[in-house]
Amino acid sequence: MPAQSEHLLPLLAPVESLPEAAGKARQLADAAGPRVLDLLFHLPERYVDRRRITRLSDAADGDVATVPLLVESVTAPRNPSQPWVVKCLSERAMIDLVYFLRAKWVGPWLHRTFPEGAARTVSGRVRRYGPRWQMDAPEFVSPPDAIPAIQPVWPLVKGLGPRDVGKAMAAALARLPGLPEWQDPAHLRRRWPGFAEALRALQAPEALPAPEATDRLAYDELLAGQLAIGLVRRAVLERPGRSLVGDGALRERALAAFGHEPTPAQAGALAEIDRDLAAPRRMLRLLQGDVGSGKTLVALMAMLRAVEAGAQAAIMAPTEMLARQHLRTFQRLAGAAGVECALLAGSVKGKERTRVLRRLADGSLPLVVGTHALFQEGVQFRDLALVVVDEQHRFGVAQRLMLTEKGSETDVLVMTATPIPRTLLLTQWGEMAVSRLEGRPAGRKPIVTRIVSRDRRDEVLAALRRAFANGDRAYWVVRAIEEGEAHDNVAAETTFAGLKEIFGDKVRLAHGAQSLEVREAALGDFAAGRAQLLVATTVVEVGVDVPEATIMIIEQAERFGLSALHQLRGRVGRGSAQSYCLLLPSAELLEGEKRRLSVIRDTEDGFLIADADLDQRGGGDALGTRQAGQIGRRIADPQRHGGLVRVAHQEAELLLEKDPGLLATERGRAARNLLAIFDHDPSLKPLAAG
């Protein structure tokens, strides 16, 4: 790490390095992330203003109030169903503090905390019952607690309380160093606070935070992303490459085996890729396309061009299941052209692994499909000219770089099956070359999507019986593997057991906790028709291609993101038969959940869905490994801060024109701190992997 970033080391330390996090480090890491910096960016979802109501006479039923009172008595419950009650007087109003606690320590603790005649101040939500007020288990009692005027409400996980976060957050804020300013002075004249000041205003507010604090941090992350992308683009343009030119013979034979001409969108994307491959510089191109748009065929055609030029090509997938799916397609099409393709994954061992490694090293194996195993030490290529990374968001930039460094002057094509909204392209990819596939292959019918209430489950089961009698197959997808939280009361294991009682040996189960062999066996039975119903978690979201599957059932559909629902729906409709997607939501839906499911019901346009998903939950981080959260990371809101994206893009370009290496000027060196803060390696080397 450059010297100017060394003072960031306390922020990059693990959260357990905070003594105030003792005993809760694991929960804090689950909620926020593993580092002190992650905790600082764990922003409150709302704030409770405890200054607003200080007299019961000003309160309405259900308000949060902070009121002084005089303790009259502590009353023990007469039976286990009754609570402890602390009777108090606040001015002339009567108020009961109610505690539904059963432990032996409760009585002594209440008598110590509320001695008769003592003056206390309590804060919590009040309810009115006739002439008396009631507050259930006050959130704060002073003394001994200090009652915050403005209380941040952070997202929590099981076993983590607001006081745990508050103590750790105060310690993390104390570690914030003084940093040189990286923002343009013109932005600071907008009344934007400094970086540390903005964090303190949001995490330990003395008053309700002004919007400028969030705006400042949102722009920081947008600028960091744009600087990182700008550096990538410049690095790619400056790197030497080589021209890959083929005679088209291998492609022609593979397309003959495919049996269809490429769609206009595929042909257009391939022409753009061919121009990049032929140019004497390295290619860094994003191929994005909706579910079923035909990215795999485009990728294979690009890889065959590298083989025609006498070199090797590799495609890396995030899971072995998806890698094997690609392998089957490649063996059928490339095999027809006389081009051998092999698999390199964790399950490939012994003599077969030795054979694949030897043939990659001597160049006799032109195409390889693999997982993370491709970039492990010991894997050598004779002449790796093209790397294709599928589902790129599931790999970190360092992992992608490790594979590209297996070759010399390697071209890179990254693919995503999650459509990226046009507004997000600039945000996350800047000037990166983008090829976009729109439309679906010929012969595929639109998928009929319906929202079906859970009380119609018997009708769904009857429809499955009719479909199975016709030889069709179906997916039944749930979120959880086992029953856990109350809202995860639909689980794969129990659903599988129930459906197996109904449909017998026609049912198989697939989820991420199974061994690869067990899961692959279930998927194999389903693909071969030995099973007609596959109960699964989201392990089937990508990489499963069963044209005979015509029904997708998704339980608790409201708990999935729009993009996930769209990807799951894309597992059906892959043949010529009419297909259906049935969304089975929970009994009671919030308005936002209804709107989200309506989007899926009303359109199959993945780009419209991606736009809606971006509006609702943000776009993740295409430069790193995070995919949840808002643009760039977790702060910027696409609706509120959308106008700042282009400003950040332009400012990054100006800054890099003046200081290409971010080392020559004071502001450039400060910007390297910004890159480190937002997880863009200041060395910039990993970014070159795309």
TrEMBL record:
Gene Ontology terms, MF aspect: ATP binding; DNA binding; DNA helicase activity; hydrolase activity
Helicase ATP-binding domain segment(s): 276-437
PROSITE patterns linked: HELICASE_ATP_BIND_1 (PS51192), HELICASE_CTER (PS51194)
Signal sequence interval, chain numbering: none
Keywords for this protein: ATP-binding, DNA damage, DNA repair, DNA-binding, Helicase, Hydrolase, Nucleotide-binding
Limits of the Helicase C-terminal domain: 425-615
E.C. designation(s): 3.6.4.12
Any coiled-coil regions, as ranges: none
Pfam families (UniProt xref): DEAD, Helicase_C, RecG_dom3_C
Gene Ontology biological process terms from the UniProt entry: DNA repair
Protein name per UniProt: ATP-dependent DNA helicase RecG
